[in-house]
Amino acid sequence: MIAGDYTFLFALGIIFAFLDSYGIGANDVSNSFGAAVGSGSLNLKQAVLIALVCEFLGAFLMGSSTADTIKGGLIDVNLFKEQPELLMLAMVCSLVGSSTWVLFASSRGLPVSTTHAIVGAITGAGIAGFGFNTVKWSGVGTIVLSWVISPLAAGVVTTLIFLVTRFLILKHQDSLKRGLTLLPYYFAITIFINVFYIIFKGSPGLGLSKLPLGAILGITFGVALVVFLKVYLRRTLEGEEPLRWYHAFYIRMVATRTKTPEITEELAEGKAAQFAQNDDRSDGTIGDGLMDLDDAEKPMSMFQKLKNKAFKGLNQDITKNTEAMDTIHDNSTRYEPKTEQLFCTLQVLTACFASFAHGSNDVANAIGPLTTIYYVWKNGMVDLEGTSTIPIWILLFGAISLDIGLLTYGYKVMATLGNNICYISPSRGFSLSLGTSLTVLTCSKLGMPVSTTHCITGATTAVGLCSGGGRKSINWKVLGLIASSWLLTLPAAGLVSGLIFAVIINSPHKM
């Protein structure tokens, strides 16, 4: 093979790598922000917009480590030495199989493992081409082992975090006061843990690992104790002052504000009567300055239609619960609402780090095969040593594709997780997000492409079991559905990939 040959395979690889990254963003967005939306700490728009930034940074800065494992650790590339173009074809078929299954599952709202999908697809193509000997079963075994370890590890870590939080704060006689006392330290510890992983286990090219540990500790505790001041929290929760989040940065200079008076029943009735009176006006309008009914029926412009289509994913209601789910939620212990509010910001913070971890880990599922395709196309040979680096443009391409899928189609799977496994409050959401982030970031830097779906599901189940109602606090039907989709993922993606590869290489062609 000459360098530059089979450009059409390279083009197909780019197309299906985009579709695979798109599906990853659409399917796995719930892993990071589903709990935050389900608990009410964020609405869907806020969650998606924040995730766009976090997913992009994680994929771009830290996505190369697990990509190395995906692109070269599953099949024996020596078998493709004499025909490098077959390796290109195998990777293209793998992306087709993976993207097809992930997009199908996303359309049904099924949270599947995108890591399962690409591993199954690569394995299927390898078996179709050279039989079972082409697959590095030790590499597959390591990844399968991580699938078992990751939910268990995330569940254990999450359980410890939540039980300590419940003992120290939630079950205390004056939980709000205790929470106000300890929360700044929660912020400090949370930020330090995540910054530690990002800096010392992060992208080598950033050169951040040279910073001394003492400086990291000092900066972390300083920021956490100054920015998230107890004064701000006490004034907003105890004093119920209508302060904005940015007031925390200069809270001591903000004058005391009175609470906005609530609308009384009499005032509400008066407003309703006034609205009804305005509704009966003879000019066909509803209230002063509102749009005429005829205007509301005017057809939308093409730009408006495109805008509504593009941002459809930001305008979905994913928090609706059935009567059965309400019963499951009622089995969970509820804690002081104001104390729970203390954890809202913490939950958002941990969700951001979990999103960063997801971007760093799961982008490899699409850009790993694309990197192999690009290397063969550019050099006309197989990278037998496995020393090739991930080009910056491929990391950037994967990160952007991930964000597009998250923005336009992520609400589907988020609606399945959210509150449909167990009751999620801000304190529970904080615990499971931090536990998941620790697990995924650690495994990511060990080169183990773990499933964030497995981690977040294990963490969520652990929180549900600790919620007071035991097994009755868990929606086992949804968990069974999720488990079934996991079992189908690897063989489904492998079957599609293997069949396509087998048909192409065995079809009649000129010698």
TrEMBL record:
Transmembrane domains' residue ranges: 6-26, 47-66, 86-105, 117-135, 147-170, 182-200, 212-233, 390-411, 478-505
InterPro entries reported for this sequence: Phos_transporter (IPR001204)
Subcellular locations according to the entry: Membrane
Membrane topology qualifier: Multi-pass membrane protein
Keyword Transmembrane helix annotated: yes
Record's GO cellular component terms: membrane
Alphabetically ordered keywords of this record: Membrane, Phosphate transport, Transmembrane, Transmembrane helix, Transport
One Pfam family named in its UniProt record: PHO4
A GO BP entry: phosphate ion transmembrane transport
Main location: membrane
Functional description taken from the UniProt entry: Sodium-phosphate symporter.
Family: Belongs to the inorganic phosphate transporter (PiT) (TC 2.A.20) family.
Protein name (database record): Phosphate transporter
Species assigned in the record: Mortierella alpina
